[in-house]
Structure prediction request, 306 residues.
Amino acid sequence: MKKRRGSHRRERDGGARGKARGGAEPPGHVLPAGFVARVLADLGPHEGEELLASLRGPAQLGLRLDSRLGEPLDVMRRLGWSAEPLPWSPEGVLLHGGASAHEHAGRAQGPSRSGHPAASHPWHDAGVYYLQDPAAMGVVPVLDPRPGELILDLAAAPGGKSTYVADRLQGSGLLWSHDVDASRVGTLVGNLERWGAANVVVSHGPVARLAPLYGTFDRVLLDAPCSGEGMFRKSRAALDLWSPGRVAEFVAVQARLLDEAVELLKPGGVLVYATCTFGADEDEAAIDALLGRRDDVAPQTITVPG
Ligand code: SAM
Prediction:
């Protein structure tokens, strides 16, 4: 989305967001009945069943290499790990032969239940690469941060996307990484330090604390807190906590954060909104509602390779 410089005309010309596919329902778990019903109603039996089947499969393991250190496939070959490129992320690969190696909300981005050596290799602790869901690696290339710019990551912990933004900034400009949750910010700082990220400010607390920075940022990423349906393959908590009522609670938080995100953009700045969930209420409808509330933003059409 782009913040208008002056015009009050509103466009509705697209803004489709890529959706994650594939992955691992933790053994012994079933998808919430309300979620299954909604997916089938939204997508129809064919596409709906495809999505549900993918969510019952194994989680996929992605790895993103520090771009200062070479080409990801070359480095994977050197390590003896089989991998394939990710069309939507030049710095990332899909690793073969391992379940998800990290919990989204876990400790310092690290292994939890992977059989893949990437999760315990010393280069992981050295910040040579970051283990990240393949779909999650699609967001920062859409944000497209450029050296010299001022970038705000508004919901940044544990830092998967902040480390990616830092990589793209190449030490020039500024990354401001914020999260509401002080306990998660420790993990965020650890991951940014391990990455060797330069020119970064980290803050925590209610987003309203950032009000003095209204109108400042070239690009704002809102990787919003959400019901986490895209996490069902690897997170028991996401499965256990899901409910229609909880989805509605997130919709309200997302609306508030979207308004704050727009305020923090400079005129002409770009906002990217992402979630790790599938329902339209938290995705397309959240953007429609934002466009209904404000006449100073316009959607932009994006294309994502692959
Ligand atoms: N961007 C992160 C990454 O790539 O590693 C993942 C972010 S996670 C999807 C959503 C984050 O939003 C959580 O870290 C959570 O603490 C934070 N959050 C929840 N409510 C928030 C709020 N009201 N303001 C700011 N952040 C919030």
Notes: The CA atoms of residues 66 and 129 lie 6 Å apart. The chain has nine helices and eleven strands. The longest strand covers residues 265-274. The chain has a mean pLDDT of 89.
